[in-house]
Design a protein that fits this description.
Largest sheet: 6 strands, antiparallel
Structural class: alpha+beta
Helix content: 10-25%
Strand content: 15-25%
Number of helices: 2
Radius of gyration: 34 Å
Distance between the termini: 145 Å
Shape: elongated
Length: 206
């Protein structure tokens, strides 16, 4: 009686080649997928960075304007606005700690050599910094209360409030305007020394 000798058969050359081809194809597909994901991630990151930069560019110049507060009568930091410059005090300064009324000034300075209008911001005792720039010489500040027309000077003759409700930085037709809503009070509460009875020259005082 003869015994059958069983030998373990290995992979043939053809089977090995098929496995290698399939593995190579799967690797290529996966690499393309990963490269697509990485490209999309880079694109999204760039878009987010550009959006953040645009938001900052829109918000930084108007942030001090949102925090404008009135000053007491006859004090030097009462809000005053012209078409190319404005000054007052704000609770949202860019160079000093927030929350304390800080005198500031904004100026639209035109550089004729480069045909650029530069928005400069300055606080008392600090160097001015550039906040934005626009092509041409058409940028201007405009002011408005709750009702009425946009004014190029503040306070206008008929206004009874010290600060405007809205401040518009008109950058010209080629750029989006910057609009700030002044959130604080628009007049200071009258102090005792500001009342007619405290004035020695007032007919009410003896």
């Amino acid at each position: 009686m003869t015994e059958r000798v069983s030998s373990e058969a290995g992979f043939t050359l053809f089977e090995t080649l098929v496995v290698l081809v399939i593995t190579t194809l799967m690797g290529a597909v996966l690499m393309q997928g990963f490269s697509g994901v990485l490209a999309a991630r880079v694109s999204v990151s760039n878009n987010i960075a550009n959006l953040q930069e645009a938001i900052l560019a829109q918000n930084i110049p108007v942030d001090p304007l949102r925090g404008i507060v009135p000053d007491y009568k006859n004090n030097p930091n009462q809000f005053r606005g012209q078409s190319r410059t404005l000054s007052g005090q704000t609770l949202r300064p860019l160079l000093s700690p927030a929350g304390t009324p800080t005198p500031f000034k904004m100026t639209l300075d035109y550089d004729s050599g480069r045909d650029l209008t530069i928005l400069l911001y300055e606080e008392t005792g600090r160097k001015s910094v550039e906040l934005a720039r626009w092509r041409g010489n058409s940028a201007a500040f405009k002011y408005r209360d709750l009702a009425g027309q946009w004014e190029s000077v503040w306070p206008p003759p008929k206004s009874t409030s010290q600060t405007p409700w809205l401040i518009w930085i008109d950058a010209g037709a080629s750029s989006a305007p910057l609009l700030a809503s002044v959130a604080g009070p628009h007049d200071r509460v009258t102090r005792l020394q500001d009342s007619p009875f405290a004035n020695p020259k007032s007919p009410f005082s003896r």
